Every structure is written in C-alpha cells, then in structure tokens.
Amino acid sequence: MRKIILIILFAFFSMALFYQPNTITMKGSDTMVILAQRWAEKYMDNNSNLVIQVNGGGTGTGIAALINGTTDICNSSRPMKPSEREKLKQRYNSVGVEIRVARDGLALYVNNDNPVKVLTKEQIKNIFLGRTKNWKEVGGNNSPIIIYGRENSSGTYVHFKEEVLNGEDYTSSMQSLPGTAAVVNAVSKDKNAIGFGGAAYAVGVRDIAVKANPRAKAYIPTDENIKKGLYPISRLLYLYVRNKPTGELKKFIDWMLSNEGQKVVSEVGYFPIR
Fold first, then answer.
1. pLDDT tens-digit map of 14-27
2. Is 195 in contact with 184 (CB distance < 8 Å)?
3. Each residue of 57-96: pLDDT tens digit?
4. What values do phi and psi take at 273, rounded to 5?
C-alpha cells in the first residue's frame, strides 16, 4: 500500500513539475490597456489552462515588440505604418494581420442651458487651446467659457490632445478632473462649462454635434454614428499579429470579437465593432 501511495505522489509531483500553462502576451496601446486586461481576466475565468499577460507602453512599443518577436499580440490605437509592415515582412515574410476590435469616440459635453448646439473641430481646438474664450465667439451667450478636462495620465487626455489639438498643449485654464464622471458632474452644474469624455457618460449634460469642417454635416456621438465612423472625433482600435492566428491565439481573438467579448468593449467605455 505504501508503495502505491509513493507512486501516486511521484506521478502527481512529476505532472506538476512539467505542466506549463499556455501563455499569450499582449503589448502596446496604453489606451487599450484596461480593455485588454478586462478581456484577459474574463477569458481566463473560463480557460484555466491559459495565462494572458497584458502590458502597455504605447502603440509604437507594441509594434516594435511584435517585430522583435517578444509579444504575440500588439494592441494598437492606430494603423501600422508601411515602414513597420516592411520590417515585419523582412523578418517573418509576412506583413502581419490586422484585426479591428473596437472604436473609440469622444463626446463634447455642455450644460443643458447652453444654446450652442454645433461646433467644428477647429472651434473645439481653439476653445481647448485657450484662443476662444467667450461663448459669443461660437454663437452662444456673452459669457466666459469654463473648460474641464482629464488629468494628463488619462488616455482620453492624450487621445483628445492628439486628435483635436494636433499635439498642442491644453490651455492652462483647463480644470483637470480625475475621471469622466467628475467632468460630467462639473459641466452639469455650470452653464458656461464644456468638457469631454466617453459618450456613454453624458447623463445630465448635452452632447455637442461636431463637424469635421465648416462645410461638413454635424454628428452627435451616438453608438451608430461612432460605429459607422461618421462622428469626427473617433478612431478604430486594432490588434496586430504576425501571421494568421491558430490554436489558443485564434480562440482568444475569436472570443474578443464575439458578443461576449464585444460586451466587454461597451463595459469599459468604448464602442463595439460589431
């Protein structure tokens, strides 16, 4: 009997010693870190044989890691550049596989009593750069514009700066708040205020319709307008892999694109691609 128990224990410890769970690595866009982490957590709940490691560092870092072979998936908030695809091709004889997984859109909130309904991207840029200081300059009341935004650690802060301000710095008069809910709350209590954040947060405030240019049609940031790419302040979010995915990698990517995976996109505050 003792001999049998020893054999069983030896077999058990041998299996534990040699068992290695499958691992998938994701690296890249800081904007997508929270989304990728939530995907990983949810997926691992039902796939205990799998470890999914998520790291940020920025899209450029993720693409470099994909080229260097140190990540399985690159999370990217922009399309890969031709020069990056060429490097991938030289190393792996593949230009990579692009997978669109979500859309990111930013709404402009104003107080419900503000008469301004529409702004162009240029007008929004001038407001947040501090060049336009009074609502009457954009068709509103003769009142100073009070600006609310996010802290500089926020991905929303960075996206808005890149997308709307073309990389220029926000006006120093902008009041930075720790979350989108705080921005919405501040705008709801101040009739001269404007702020930005996810469209899903706009409760108790009003979304401004945005024109890409003075001649373009204005769009409100509804789910449908963002999904179709009509709302001017939106962008696609991508995954990149080196080759056509197979095995556990394919299963995980297919799940991210499934109804369950796309539900996570909405929960995090982005917009489903399907």
1. 544 444 559 999 99
2. yes
3. 888 889 999 999 999 999 998 889 899 999 999 999 999 9
4. -90, -15
Task: Determine contact, residues 118/204, Cβ cutoff 8 Å.
Answer: no
Task: Pick out the chain residues at pLDDT < 50.
Answer: 12-13, 15-19
Among 237, 231, 236, CA closest to 212? 231
The residue with tokens 């073309």 is: 166
Whole-number pLDDT of residue 95: 96
Contact 98, 80 (CB under 8 A): yes
DSSP H helices in the chain: 2-18, 33-45, 59-68, 82-92, 121-129, 155-163, 180-188, 223-227, 247-256, 259-268
| Strand 206-207 relative to strand 50-57, pairing | unpaired
Span between the terminal Cα atoms of the chain, in Å: 60
Give the predicted TM-score (pTM) of the model. Answer: 0.69
Other CB atoms closer than 10 Å to residue 207's CB: what's the count? 17
70 touches 49 (CB < 8 A): no
The predicted structure's pLDDT at residue 250: 97
Q: What own/partner pairs with CB < 8 Å and gap ≥ 24 does 78-81 have?
A: 78/235, 78/238, 79/236, 79/238, 80/240
Closest CA to 78 of 25, 32, 124: 32
**Cβ atoms of residues 148 and 194 within 8 Å:** yes
Kindly give, in sequence order, each residue whose CB lies less than 8 Å from that of residue 263, ignoring residues fewer than 6 positions away: 272
Alpha-carbon gap, residue 121 to 105, rounded angstroms: 14
Task: Tell me the average pLDDT of the chain.
Answer: 89
Task: Tell me the C-alpha distance between 50 and 60, whole Å.
Answer: 26
Angle at 82 between CA 99 and CA 226, to 5 degrees: 40
